[in-house]
């Protein structure tokens, strides 16, 4: 008998550039407090995480600069696309993230936004910015691995 799969998740947006620009040290799943028109816009996939980041302010976690487009069928009370959105985390998680971010060169970067069992979730990464030479080394490693796979495929 086949094992039941995990809870269904629907990917809304992904920050692909984050893994290129940052060295990810760990991830945390957080809930996201949204208003009604934001949820509808997320279901349409109108979200951008390119410039987004998270911050700890006054003992609360916030998602900043995340662009959720106004809902197309909304009225005059539609949401502000760049408003700060509260991240729903336990107190000990917020304290732990705040302590790690206080260390030099670390930041909180959202990697992806998704629905999990109907609830909006965001995957936050504790990350350190990469230097230019680190990025070049990663590209060289990836190219070498691709070249090796290509050669192995030809020999088979």
Structure description:
32% of the residues lie in helices and 37% in strands. It is of the alpha+beta class and 156 residues long. It has one domain: Small protein B (Small Protein B, Chain: A). The strands form two sheets. A seven-stranded antiparallel β-sheet has the order 1-8-9-2-7-5-4. Strands 3-6 form a two-stranded antiparallel ribbon. A hairpin with a 2-residue loop joins strand 8 and strand 9. The chain is globular. The model has no long low-confidence stretch (mean pLDDT 86).
Write down the oligomeric state. Answer: single chain
Please report the number of helical segments.
4
Report the average pLDDT across residues. 86
Largest sheet: 7 strands, antiparallel
Query: How many domains in all?
Result: 1
What structural class is derived from the secondary structure elements? alpha+beta
β-strand number: 9
Low-confidence stretches: none
CATH domain class name: Mainly Beta
CATH topology: Small Protein B, Chain: A
CATH architecture: Beta Barrel
N/C terminus separation:
35 Å
Provide the helix percentage: 25-40%
What is the approximate shape?
globular
Fraction of residues in β-strands? 35-45%
List SSEs in N-to-C order: EHEHEEEEEHEEH
The CATH superfamily label reads Small protein B
Q: How are the strands of the largest sheet arranged?
A: 1-8-9-2-7-5-4
- Radius of gyration over alpha carbons? 19 Å
């Amino acid at each position: 008998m086949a094992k039941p799969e995990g809870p269904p998740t629907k990917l809304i947006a992904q920050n692909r550039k984050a893994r290129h620009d940052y060295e990810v040290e760990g991830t945390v799943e957080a809930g996201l407090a949204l208003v009604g028109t934001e949820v509808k816009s997320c279901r349409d996939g109108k979200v951008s995480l390119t410039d987004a980041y998270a911050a700890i302010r006054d003992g609360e976690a916030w998602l900043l600069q995340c662009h959720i487009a106004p809902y197309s069928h909304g009225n005059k009370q539609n949401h502000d696309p760049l408003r700060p959105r509260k991240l729903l985390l336990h107190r000990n998680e917020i304290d732990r993230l705040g302590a790690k971010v206080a260390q030099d060169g670390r930041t909180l970067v959202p990697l992806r936004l998704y629905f999990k069992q109907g609830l909006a979730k965001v995957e936050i990464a504790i990350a350190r910015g990469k230097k230019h030479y680190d990025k070049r080394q990663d590209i060289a490693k990836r190219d070498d691995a691709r070249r090796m796979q290509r050669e192995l495929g030809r020999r088979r």
